[in-house]
Amino acid sequence: MAEFSQKRGKQRDEVLGGTVDFLLANARLVLGVGGAAVLGIATLAVKRLIDRATSPRDEDDAKGDSTCLEESWKELSLLKATPRQQARSPPAALSQPVALPAPSPAAPEGPTDTRPQMSPPLSSPAPLCLTFQEKLLAFERDHVTIPAAHVVLAKQLAGDIALELQAYLRNKFPELPFGALVPSGPLYDGLQAGAADRVRLLVPVVLEEGLWSLVPGLDTVARDPRCWAVRRTQLEFRPRGSSPWDRFLVGGYLSSRVLLELLRKALASSVNWPAIGSLLGCLIRPSVASEELLLEVQHERLELTVAVLLVVPAAATEDPLLLAWPLEGLAGNLWLQDWYPAEAARLRALDDRDAGTRRRLLRLLCGVCHGHPALGRLDRCHLSQVVLRLGEAEADWAEAALGEHFLQALEALIDSLAQASLPCHFDPRVNLFVSLRAEEIDDLGFALYSGLQAPEWLL
């Protein structure tokens, strides 16, 4: 009897599931995007309630209930699988001024009051409802755009810190040939999104020509396409110890982890930051909580974060720029390939070709994600790759299409999160979501899907 009841319940679930799938697949054609989203949410909610009422509860139910909310964004993202036929147009009620009520009809005739009437107080005009495009431009003006005076001051502080740190490294480690420290990053490429973006302070590791070679990460035991190994060569002619960098070798490879620890200890305990800050008119403190090498700079007019990055510069045009980055596991001693210079150069070239707004879109996405508690895991690299993909595919990049491209970027991120894969624009073998855990992907996907239904809430 129990088997018959279980079989009958299973058949009922299959019929119900087929009905739900049919409704979700055809709702968009009948109701449009907004109506389909509402119907999808309601249908899934009813389906889960029926499942709970008709299915015997076991130990897995409690676990399933806690994850049903996160799973729904993946299921409802299927509603957007069909391509858009036309650009979104805001509802008339949101794009037109609010009409004032018509005057009431005259009162029936009767005894009139000849006393002077007090005129009603003048009320302020009703505010007009803004379109999403207008709200997006207002968010850009208020939260993304940086005053020109602050940009100049930030560049000056970063340059002065670079000079002071370079002098310290030469005095502290005279045997190590560090190159000239170069401030760079979004602030210097017109990509700064508010005060949250960091200034990149590159510390070049100058290697001797002919003694070192680069090995792709796929050819190492880590099998990681994001990384490269820096191998020591010519040991039969130049034995170990003839290069000042040989003291940082691990298994015949230059270890990024050992070099990072050396610089971390120096920045945290050896550099006299109070004296340097007093000289520059600001307060400088190294961040001890982060795995990255960060300097927190506080000036009376702005706050700034400087990321100190050890790099192996490209010896030739086709060579990658490698960062010493806190990696885990077998890749701990490898060097991470830095895609930022290629991303910034490609976006600049695309915008220069058609006077487009791709870089403005990237700044807006960075500003939204930096200020959102659930979207902080999406860094500039993730967002740059999505904008590059849209920038190559879409033709119209005028300012009037900025709001539409913003929503397209959200949809592209949702699709990539549903697949747990964001291929690098320059090397499709690299999955930029590989470092995200499953629960982080669910949180990001649900937050983005909720924001796509009401994008004004993200601003």
Automatic annotation (TrEMBL):
Q: What is its main location?
A: mitochondrion
A GO CC term assigned to this protein in UniProt: mitochondrial outer membrane
Q: Where are the transmembrane segments?
A: 22-46
- Superkingdom of source: Eukaryota
Q: Which residues form the Mitochondrial dynamics protein MID51-like C-terminal domain?
A: 151-343
Q: Where is the signal peptide?
A: none
Annotated InterPro entries: Mab-21_HhH/H2TH-like, MAB21L/cGLR, MID49/MID51, MID51-like_C
State if 4Fe-4S is listed as a keyword: no
Q: Which residues form the Mab-21-like HhH/H2TH-like domain?
A: 378-444
**Subunit-level organization:** Interacts with DNM1L.
Q: What is this protein called?
A: Mitochondrial dynamics protein MID49
Query: What organism is listed for this UniProt entry?
Result: Enhydra lutris kenyoni
Q: Upper taxonomic classification of the species? A: Eukaryota, Metazoa, Chordata, Craniata, Vertebrata
